[in-house]
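Lecture 7 notes. Example A: sequence first, then its structure tokens.
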Amino acid sequence: MAVISGALTLSVAMGRAPRDKKEGGAMEDVAKLAATEASPSFWRGAQSGVSKPDIRVVKEEKAWAALWKEEFNTEAPKVDFSRYFAVAVFLGLRNTGGYGVEFLTPVAEKGKVRIAYRVKSPGTGSFVIQAFTQPYAIQLYRRTPLEVTVEKGD
């Protein structure tokens, strides 16, 4: 029994990430900004009301409600904007299905947080729906005191 207990203690201790020396400071571990504890914290789809590419950073309830009303003609999901902010990426009108948005790990650079995203495209010869689509993705992130920029990544 002591061997099992010791093995469990060792495996738990080894699985822990080292503490960031700057924890709670301005240069917090930005890789952990994605709000995984909020449910839901991520929305994506192939149909929105946005026909041109657009990026939005939403930090307040009024803008959040307007985004959902204007682009999806529905009520906005509940979000605690004292703890979170949202990044919405709209790809605009596409001729087929198979497109999407993938958010990359946030990176701290020069006192700012850079949130990059990748456009996912259908592969050559892929079977996709032959219909117009307007792909989008929306991700919640934990609030940060740093300035946030959003851009297309690699």
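Example B, a different protein, same format:
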Amino acid sequence: MTKSPKTIGHYEVKELIGKGGMGEVYLCYDPKTERDVALKRIRPEMHGIPLIRQRFLKEAKIAAQLTHPAILGVYSIEENFQDLFYIMPFIQGKTLKTLLASYRQSKASTIHLVRDFLTICHAVQYAHSKGVLHRDLKPENILIGPFNEVLIYDFGLAEYADMNEESFDDMPVLKSHPDLTRVGKIVGTITYMAPERILEKLDSVQSDIYSLGVILYQILTLKHPFKRQSVKQFKQQAQEEKILDPIDVAPMREIPPLLAKIAMRCLSFKKEHRYQNLKEMISDLEQYFEGKADWVFAARLDPKNPSDWELQETVVLKQTKDWAIYMLSSTLFPGNVKLEAHITLEKGSEGVGFLLGVAHRM
């Protein structure tokens, strides 16, 4: 086992706190600012590989450009012929992955974590506004601090929205460093990846939204929405993958219907059925916190499409056989009026809603 260095640059190394495919993270003391910092440097055995250095440097620059309270920032980037590292704030907290594991043991409610999840969504929305896709959103890349700090970190797989997977996946050097990528040249964590990323290698805002949906599902149920063993297995069974409603998966956890609906929409197989941007998703989450969770979005109707309004063609009043669109008045219907509807839902229908306007004459 390689011993940790005593110093890196002018930083005094306290301990190694993490190690990944490309880099290693140390808790260090900065004597110039007299504070603890987190230092991430490229692994020594990869220092001499230009393409690995390029990717590591790109990760640091992307994180440095994202100045948001819920994104772990970068103080500085230092590069020379011997070393490449960057400096971040040191936050003594726990990852969301660790917290969820503890909740599985205690069986306590996790609804309060939804507010932290909303903070995460705002941070990802900000990254998207800067043209950055995270591409590896998962609980272990989310840090929760002791003073309610909520931070996304590890932009090692991040790309600008106009890039594609080939920007790094097809590098020949990966053959000698298989821990830097995934089977089939797909980077990311398969259990958090949108179907189109696995099947077509396509990244988009909607693929990050899918990953957020997996995280929300886990917060609500403390379970994963599906089991994926490998890229090969998913490709063979993609169309058969079924995701159960969180309420059905964890009926004893009293999951609010609106939150379950948000998670399920994020996890739609086709990206056009998901939220098209974080603004839409955040709006629904804020609706929950405002106590307006009784109205749940089911489908968007197109007034120009007759098939969206077939219900009107079958709604009649029992005695008059007329359309059920009426202006009721005391002269037309003296006394109390009762409207009764008998509705038959076709296969695949999710529900029906009524809007009744009552005018009161003073």
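Note on Example B: The first helix runs from residue 50 to 65. The two ends are 86 Å apart (CA to CA).
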